[in-house]
Write a structure and sequence with these properties.
By secondary structure, the protein is an alpha/beta fold. The protein is built from 5 helices and 7 strands. It starts with 18 loop residues before the first helix and ends with a helix.
Length: 138
Amino acid sequence: MSLRRGRHRAELNAEINVVSLIDVMMLLLVIFMITAPMMQGGVEVKLPTGEARPLDQKSGVVVTIAADGSVYIDNSRLSFAEFRATFKALAGERAKVGVYVRADGASPTQRLVDVMDVLKNAGVESIGIVTQSNESAR
């Protein structure tokens, strides 16, 4: 069967079939819902406990000191020499909002002091030390 019969032509249908687009959208939604929790990673540290109430977290830089003394900016591992040399460039404008220091309870205290010296020398005015409340530690 031909669409053309003699001089008579078939009319074109200019409608978009949205059913297939909805199927693709739903598939992508399911994929993102499954993979999003897997992308929540980070450095595993055992935070020291304290009596202070939790503060509202802003969009500052998170500096983590692991138990072995290694330093992380957000989730990027750096040696202390690299951290000292590149903190100001890596943190940029976000450091002006504030810096949150997460130090493992077993990390050397001297490393915490060294990191805070680097932060102060970089011009950071607001430094917060992240702890875990006594209730959630139990």
